[in-house]
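Sanity check

After download, print the first record. It should look like this:
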Amino acid sequence: MRSALRLSILLGLALALAAPSGSAAAAPVKIRAAWIATPASLIPILFLKPGLAKHNGVTYDFEPLHFQSTPTEISALAAGDIEIATLNFASFPIAVENAGMTDLRIIADETQDGAKGYATVQYMVLNDGPIKKVADLKGRIVAVNGIGTGVDFGMRAYLLHHGMQFKRDYTMIEVPFPNMTAVLMDHKADLVTEALPFVFDPKLQKNAHTLFTLKDGLGGSELSFWEARAGFIQKHRAAFVDLLEDTVRAYRWYSDPANHKEAVAILAKFTKQPAARLDWAFTKQDTYRDPDGLPNLAMLQRNVNTVKELGFIKTDLDMSKYLDLSMIKEGAARLK
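Expected structure tokens:
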């Protein structure tokens, strides 16, 4: 009995000494990331190319989750149902001020509208319609995908610069992006908001033209960036660095012209669309993605200032207080 007990104790000690310790023994950190539309967000296809996510399943487990809107993302982040949200210059300050989420930290960039040589959202009117110049919109109906969205703010800012105020001078309706062209053709709105990929609709291109762009309204804008809560970042910083290293690797792979055909094939398979309709993706006809995953901070601050000027938030937000870009910089540095 004593011999058996002694042997059992020795075996237990040997196993304890042999077992890995620290981060090597820890289970991968579950990181759930929200996305609304792709390829505006690469999140659902980010790691579909084998070999891009070298740390996925090792130090972190990445799970893309689809959402219909940014308000639902904010609620999910507040409830702990996701670890990463993808907000923009319009929704982020509202989350901070209205939802009280002052612990949000921007950790990576996703897409920017109006970067030099790249795509911008277009506000379009019929070629044979009554709108020939901005002043002709007085008393007319304009369409955005949602009140309080980035494209809403861009439109309001541009029209306000031309002396036109919402409600006083024009009416705004909400229309999903896929339905914008039909609404314009059916004369249910005099100006519509056309974003990728819907702006390439042949019927739209034949019958309508651009009156102004989102870049005209905002001078460029931060359309989407990643954010997480400070407490979770502090607890799992090493896993975030590994994730963001893999993310930068993926950003660079998708934007490399040498990979264009394969990248479009991945997107086509995921979206169940013909690859021929998606050839614009990951080119200069697409929105801009920074190869290091870094936001344009001056542009972001200018965008947020516009949100306040339009009356959607009451306080001035210093966006530098809501940044934690150290992790993506560390991850990107590993690839050089």
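If your output differs, re-run the checksum step. Summary of this record's structure: The longest strand covers residues 104-113.
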